[in-house]
């Protein structure tokens, strides 16, 4: 029989069997939410698997030649991706198309219900974010259902943490903006007015129909020619700029305007650039957080020489100028597959992961040392419990809350630093989109009619970085109610950070 904290406490599955109604109702709606977006969710999962295969294969290839195996695996995953793309989804460009052309009668052909492209795109935009926020709301309803119907305890320290977070307006602002940023990255193909493939990767290979008012007939061109003709160049002629919320001469709607020569849609580039920023930020924080937690547990448990060695290594890494290290790595790996992946994005993420772990480790070192001195850790040692089990069960839950705070605040720094490097031309290189690149492309147009090119991504960078910091503040204040006053509720934070 499974051991439980109390002799009369039943496992969660048994509690659900005793009262299945609420769980079944919640599960049915959750399954429906997954089903309507199954194709898109599978596509995201397959993209992650392809990334893992490509990275893992590149590392293994340095020791053993597995090129044929990697090619076979990628081909198989590509087939799965095409199959996933055939699964109908509620939120798709095919269901709510916004690309079409004006007919001689003044209507629109090829758009959703014959609506203007701006309206069709707006409907798809609203549907995507309505789905995302309802999905998160339903997850919250699942937690609330668990507390109401299936949890034995009437109160846990986590309840106070949730209550404080629900009244923390600054943290809620950060949460909403972060969710919108993540949704923009995940649903970039759906939210963009045009696919990045047609807009930037292969614009001369995709045809575009438009209504030629002078000739009075529908004609065909390609995206490349249309982008060149509608690029925002900041001239005195209004035709030299397609600004925020305007149509171009080919009947295409641009929510945030167009880019300078060779042109293209600004919203599309920013949406796909959000994917790159999220990838770099999450990978860098994942690597640095993993190293920091591992070393934090080891140094807190063993102390002595282990702690001294970690201090020396972390001090040495923090003494290295980050910019110089990035330039050095870019030169060393310029011909390596690491430098080619995401046009330098992977390399930047790895370098950031290496640079940031000492800072995170120092931040969680104190809480880890504090919990290592508690009675329950000494009791576990005296009973002969393995060190790995003690660290995982009795120490890790204590520092998880602190890690969430520091990771949320650090990821904003990674995003803005990546943008700064791309702005300087030593970060992620085209054609991989990145927000700092767009700011650099538009800096010469700030005082012209094409001010939106640099202004919009600049505001987004500030907003997203501020949101991650606000979310970190909210989590910190929720875990530790005395944090604003400089104190600390250590025992409550321990339970709230990972307790049950």
From TrEMBL:
InterPro entries hit by this protein: BP-dependent_transpt_permease, MetI-like, MetI-like_sf, OppC_N
Membrane topology: Multi-pass membrane protein
Subcellular location: Cell membrane
SUPFAM superfamilies named in the record: MetI-like (SSF161098)
Gene Ontology CC: one annotated term: plasma membrane
Source organism superkingdom: Archaea
Predominant place of localization: membrane
All copies of domain ABC transmembrane type-1, residue ranges: 274-472
Transmembrane segments: 23-46, 58-77, 118-140, 173-191, 276-301, 308-333, 345-364, 396-429, 449-471
The keyword Transmembrane is assigned to this record: yes
UniProt family annotation: Belongs to the binding-protein-dependent transport system permease family.
Pfam families tied to this protein: BPD_transp_1 (PF00528), OppC_N (PF12911)
Keywords: Cell membrane, Membrane, Transmembrane, Transmembrane helix, Transport
Source organism of the structure: Halomarina halobia
Gene3D superfamilies assigned to the protein according to its UniProt record, in alphabetical order: MetI-like
Name the UniProt record assigns to this protein: ABC transporter permease
């Amino acid at each position: 029989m499974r051991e439980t904290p109390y002799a009369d406490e039943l496992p969660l599955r048994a509690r659900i069997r005793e009262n299945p109604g609420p769980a079944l109702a919640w599960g049915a709606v959750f399954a429906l939410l997954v089903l309507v977006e199954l194709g898109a969710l599978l596509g995201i999962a397959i993209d992650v698997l392809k990334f893992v295969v490509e990275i893992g294969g590149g590392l293994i290839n340095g020791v053993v030649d597995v090129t044929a195996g990697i090619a076979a695996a990628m081909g198989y995953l590509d087939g799965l991706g095409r199959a996933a793309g055939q699964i109908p989804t509620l939120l798709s460009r095919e269901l709510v198309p916004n690309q079409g052309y004006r007919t001689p009668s003044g209507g629109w052909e090829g758009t959703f219900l014959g609506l203007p492209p701006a309206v069709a795109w707006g409907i798809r935009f609203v549907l995507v974010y309505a789905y995302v926020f309802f999905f998160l709301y339903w997850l919250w309803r699942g937690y609330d259902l668990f507390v109401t119907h299936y949890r034995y305890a009437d109160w846990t320290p986590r309840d106070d943490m949730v209550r404080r977070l629900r009244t923390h307006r600054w943290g809620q602002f950060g949460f909403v903006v972060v969710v919108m940023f993540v949704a923009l990255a995940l649903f970039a193909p759906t939210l963009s007015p045009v696919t990045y493939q047609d807009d930037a990767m292969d614009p001369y290979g995709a045809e575009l129909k438009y209504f030629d008012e002078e000739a009075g007939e529908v004609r065909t061109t390609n995206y490349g020619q249309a982008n060149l003709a509608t690029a925002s160049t900041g001239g005195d002629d209004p035709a030299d700029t397609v600004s925020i919320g305007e149509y171009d001469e080919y009947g295409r709607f641009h929510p945030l305007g167009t880019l300078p020569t060779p042109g293209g849609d600004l919203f599309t580039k920013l949406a796909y650039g959000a994917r790159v920023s999220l990838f770099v930020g999450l990978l860098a924080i994942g690597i640095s957080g993993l190293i920091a937690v591992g070393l934090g547990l080891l140094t807190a448990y063993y102390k002595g020489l282990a702690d001294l060695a970690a201090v020396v290594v972390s001090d040495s890494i923090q003494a290295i100028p980050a910019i110089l290290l990035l330039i050095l790595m870019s030169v060393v790996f310029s011909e390596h597959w690491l430098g080619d992946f995401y046009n330098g994005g992977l390399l930047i993420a790895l370098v950031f992961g290496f640079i940031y772990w000492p800072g995170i480790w120092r931040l969680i070192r104190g809480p880890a040392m504090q919990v290592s001195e508690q009675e329950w850790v000494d009791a576990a040692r005296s009973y002969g419990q393995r060190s790995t089990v003690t660290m995982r069960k009795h120490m890790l839950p204590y520092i998880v809350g602190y890690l969430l705070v520091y990771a949320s605040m650090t990821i904003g720094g990674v995003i803005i630093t990546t943008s700064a490097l791309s702005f300087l031309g030593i970060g992620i290189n085209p054609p991989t989109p990145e927000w700092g690149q767009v700011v650099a492309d538009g800096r010469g147009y700030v005082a012209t009619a094409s001010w939106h090119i640099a202004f919009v991504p600049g505001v987004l960078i500030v907003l997203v970085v501020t949101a991650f910091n606000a979310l970190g503040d909210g989590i910190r204040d929720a875990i530790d109610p005395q944090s604003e006053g400089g104190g600390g509720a250590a025992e409550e934070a321990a339970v709230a950070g990972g307790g049950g």
